[in-house]
Design brief:
Elements lengths: L7 H12 L3 E3 H11 L2 H12 L5 H12 L9 E3 L5 H14 L6 E5 L2 H15 L6 H24 L3 E5 L4 H17 L1
Parallel strand pairs: 1-2, 3-4
Bound molecules: adenosine monophosphate.
């Protein structure tokens, strides 16, 4: 978890490789569906373009189908999910059904001004439709309203690993590995 631009997607790949599990990024799955012009993509696009969350029913069904795939059987890392309380509850049901359990919730903590600068930079280099300045602001706002409160929920369960997300990518990766390897060994 972490605000848009905290580096979740970048770190998710390294962490998933490290543990030999798939990184399941809801944002990437939505973007792939948008570019393939699927029904799901058509439904998701208008929310994404406005910086709003795609409705829970759509998002939850998509994640449920994805984690039922064979490559997720040994475990998986979720990037960008859950983002709402309803998604937290749904995830609990899903993993009860698949026999998994949540090992950790990695929270990347960053300086919010730096985050906005990173997103503006990404907008220039990758040209994502949801990286205009207005949309970036809206996405930060929604994160604060809908997603940040979930950290307290997971903290109560003792799952949160708060990681300093500032600095070079490989430094942040190292911090995450250090925190997660301890859990993996226990
Ligand atoms: P991301 O790449 O994770 O920043 O996601 C890009 C966009 O996809 C978000 O701004 C939302 O519109 C949508 N999205 C991704 N994950 C979720 C989620 N868990 N719940 C609702 N919408 C999501």
């Amino acid at each position: 978890m972490g605000p848009p631009g905290a580096g979740k997607g970048t770190q998710a790949k390294y962490v998933a490789d490290h543990f030999g599990i798939p990184a399941i990024s809801t944002g990437n799955i939505f973007r792939a569906n948008v570019s393939q012009g699927t029904d799901l993509g058509l439904q998701a696009k208008r929310y994404m373009d406005a910086g709003e969350y795609v409705p829970d029913e759509i998002t939850n069904l998509m994640v449920r189908n994805r984690i039922d795939e064979p490559d997720a059987e040994p475990g998986f890392l979720l990037d960008g999910y859950p983002r709402t309380l309803a998604q937290v509850e749904e995830l609990d049901c899903m993993i009860e059904h698949t026999g998994h359990r949540l090992d950790a919730v990695v929270v990347l903590t960053v300086d919010s001004e730096e985050v906005v600068q990173r997103l503006l930079q990404r907008a220039r280099t990758e040209g994502r439709a949801d990286d205009t300045e207005d949309v970036i602001r809206r996405r930060q706002e929604i994160y604060g309203e809908e997603t940040e409160p979930l950290i307290a929920v997971y903290r109560e369960r003792g799952l949160v690993q708060a990681i300093n997300g500032m600095g070079e990518v490989d430094e942040v990766t190292k911090r995450i590995f250090e925190a997660l390897d301890v859990i993996d060994e226990s």
